[in-house]
Amino acid sequence: MTGSSPAPTGQMTGDQTAASTGGVRWMISAGLLLPVTFVMSMDRAAMTAAAPVIQRELGFSVTQMSVILTAFWWAYALFQVPGGLLTRRFGPRKTLALAGLWWSVFTFLTPYGVVFLGFVLIRAVLGIGQAADWPASVYTLHRWFPKREQSRANSLLLCGLYMGNVVGTPLVVWIMTTFGWHQVFHVFAVLGAALAGLWWWLARDEPRRHPRISADEVAYIEAGRSGHDEDRKASLPWRAFFGSGQFWAIGAQYACLLLIQGFFVTWLPTYLVEARGLSLKQMGWLGSLPWIAMLIGVFGVGALNDRLVRSWSARIRLAAAGYLAAAAFLLLGALTASIPLMMVFLCLSLGSVGMVQVQVWAACQDLGREHSATVTGWTNLCGNLMSAAGPLFTGILVGIGGNWLLALAILAVAGVLGAGCWFFVHPERPLHATPATTSPGPAT
Question: Disulfide engineering: 123 pairs with which of 72, 140, 216, 360, CB 3.0-4.6 Å?
Fold first, then answer.
């Protein structure tokens, strides 16, 4: 580490104004976490976009295809909390590097599933590998960013996740039509393995341990970071977590959110092709438009949080409004017969989901503080269990009666429930704190 010794935590030096405008922390976020998450999400986009082709070529039924698509999500969900615990035990640098190599190997093996059970097994094992990515990433941002910048840092992480759906769908369609669907998985596997190695080489668990960071930037980060260095080795307060109503509420609201988002992740390409009669080429481009709207929502709200909306009471109202808008526009999209108008409504729906996503991970960081990896794993567990069950239920409904409208109406109801859950979440009160030591205040 270059420069003089860092200032004590909680103190600011005169040079920290310059440190706040850039530095190693943004390289970790935008230069490493964003690309790693982007390529990981491309794998998910690959399977979703290739699903209609795989289904026709191998003769899978709609129900069988829904099981293949959701096998990943069941495994991904169930290993979220273990992923958070591994991150706490071994650190995000080691955990994320090993996870990246794991899922890259099984991405490469995906085309060799051949039969129904083979695809299910490979996708499930791949989900186990990807499960540690999100807890490790959110915990990294908690350690590397002061609270005043965490929403923008979270926006970059979410950008990596959702850029895979913006770029991934048309790119996957191009690779499929040019080289065949098998090559899609080979390309993303090689990219994933290369990024896992780059993460291991350039990342560190703590700002103080990075060889290229300045003392001023370390002091700037630690002065504004939630939680305290002395708390890092504290024992995990499971009783305080499971005895807290807001611990359950943050998980429940995310379950509702991913029930809506799961339609876009899993079934949108199939819906556009089968229910709306679009060609594969049209689906490739139109299917990416809602994810562009998602990115706009994520970046817009991330900047709004850090610059203007720092009070958690205002953020909670914003999250609830995003939920209600997502539900209303999804239902309007299902009801309209016009393809252009349907796409406008679907873009507005997923863009509203993006408004909520930023609040979720900022809430996990403030609720868990030094245990934010575990809180993140719990929240992602709840969300992805529903993300796995929801598309399966949708596939069964459509397979039995071809009723897409009923399936989307159920998702809209989930949006209303998710909005209500937010009013039971109070991120200004850390989950491990007792009422006597908790001081409600703005999230700055």
Answer: 72
The whole-number pLDDT of residue 259 equals 86
> Taking the CB of residue 17, how many other CB atoms lie within 10 A of it?
11
Distance CA 140, CA 204 (A): 9
- State pTM to two decimals: 0.73
Give the H or E element holding residue 84.
helix 80-90
User: In one letter, which amino acid is 237?
Assistant: P
Q: Where are the alpha helices (DSSP H) in 224-311?
A: 238-242, 245-262, 268-270, 280-286, 289-307
For residues 250 and 151, what is the distance between their CA atoms, to the nearest angstrom? 17
What span, in angstroms and rounded, lies between the C-alpha atoms of 323 and 414? 9
Is residue 131 within a helix (H) or strand (E), and if so which, with residue range? none
Instruction: Write down how long the chain is.
Output: 444
Instruction: Give the span between the Cα atoms of 145 and 218, in whole angstroms.
Output: 10
The CA dihedral of 50, 55, 61, 67, to the nearest 10 degrees, is: -40
Mean pLDDT of residues grouped by 10 in the chain (444 residues)?
Answer: 42 47 82 90 79 85 82 86 87 93 93 90 92 89 84 84 75 84 90 94 91 88 64 58 82 90 81 78 77 86 69 83 93 89 93 89 80 81 79 68 77 91 84 47 36
Q: Which domains does the chain have, with CATH numbers?
A: 21-226+239-424 (1.20.1250.20)
CA angle 232, 245, 143 (to 5 degrees): 25
Classify 309 as helix, strand or coil: coil
Q: Given this model, what pLDDT does residue 345 score?
A: 95
Alpha-carbon distance of 156 to 79, in angstroms, equals 24
pLDDT of residue 105: 93
Tokens linked to 416: 């209303």
Buried b (16+ CB within 10 A) or exposed e, 425-439: bbbbbbbbeeeeeee
Phi/psi for 2 (5° steps) reads -95, 165
Q: Which residues of 121-138 are buried (b: 16+ CB within 10 A; e: fewer)?
A: bbbbbbbbbbbbbbbbbb
User: What are the beta bridge partners of residue 2?
Assistant: 214
Nearest 10 degrees: Cα torsion 69, 72, 78, 84: -140
Rg (CA), the chain: 21
Distances (CA, A) of 188 to 90, 173, 268: 26, 14, 21
